[in-house]
Design goal:
The structure holds 2 protein chains of 2 kinds. Chain A is mostly beta strands. Chain A has no helices and 11 strands. By secondary structure, chain B is mainly β. Chain B starts with a strand and ends with a strand. The chains are: A mainly beta, B mainly beta.
Chain lengths: 111, 113
């Protein structure tokens, strides 16, 4: 069953702009993770944020988590053409010990 | 280099011809799993394994088998493939549980005609 839903489904921006992707989920979670997938390749882990954290940074990535709204956002600052990829959120529900992935946001960064 | 490997990367086969997709990890991870990725459906878990000789069904196990005889290997078996199993398949591993950071293989694109 789908737990996380990303929004928007697709996003196209110019190099240098910031990109924001959102993820909403339905049930209580222990942690939320963001992954990146280049076309047709394996997913790569970007960042993990736990339910008791509100914000986390990693390089040009900033992730926020609002458990009251059951939502998370991924911000990529100063985007580059190489950031073009699909981005997925994945949640660990409190009732289980595995991840459920959303359908992803396709980000295109135009040079 | 820490990695998850899958073979083959591409496979075209016919309905009913048994096939195996191999998966191997060199990180001494306890947890391994298989996913399929289809347009509009995202990533769905097929089977997972918490440890050697321990396997369990994911969300879409029908038509698939797995085994975990060794810690590093987790092959996916399609006994009688059908066209609806045409998909992009990923093997993944993580340190202890399915909630840990997942390390994904490069994917196997399977076409069943």
């Amino acid at each position: 069953s789908q737990q996380g839903e990303e929004d928007p489904q697709a996003l196209s921006i110019q190099e240098g702009e910031n990109a924001t992707m959102n993820c909403s989920y339905k049930t209580s979670i222990n942690n939320l993770q963001w992954y990146r997938q280049n076309s047709g390749r394996g997913l790569v882990h970007l960042i993990l944020i736990r339910s008791n954290e509100r914000e986390k940074h990693s390089g040009r990535l900033r992730v926020t988590l609002d458990t009251s709204k059951k939502s998370s956002s991924l911000l990529i600052t100063a985007s580059r053409a190489a950031d073009t990829a699909s981005y997925f959120c994945a949640t660990e529900e409190t009732s289980g010990s595995r991840l459920t992935f959303g359908e992803g946001t396709q980000l295109t960064v135009n040079p | 280099e820490a990695q998850v490997t899958q073979n083959p990367r591409y496979l075209i086969t016919v309905t009913g011809k048994k096939l195996t997709v191999t998966c191997s990890q060199n990180m001494n991870h306890e947890y391994m799993s298989w996913y399929r990725q289809d347009p509009g459906l995202g990533l769905r878990q097929i089977y997972y394994s918490m440890n050697v000789e321990v396997t369990d069904k994911g969300d879409v196990p029908e038509g698939y088998k797995v085994s975990r005889k060794e810690k590093r290997n987790f092959p996916l078996i399609l006994e009688s493939p059908s066209p609806n199993q045409t998909s992009l398949y990923f093997c993944a591993s993580s340190l202890l549980t399915g909630a840990d950071e997942q390390y994904f293989g490069p994917g196997t694109r399977l076409t069943v005609t």
